Amino acid sequence: MSNDVIVVRLTAWQVGLRTIDLMKALCSIAEMKLPEAKRMVERLVDGEAIDVFFSDDERAREFRVMALKAGAIMNPDE
Question: Per-residue pLDDT for 63 more than 60?
Answer without folding.
Answer: yes
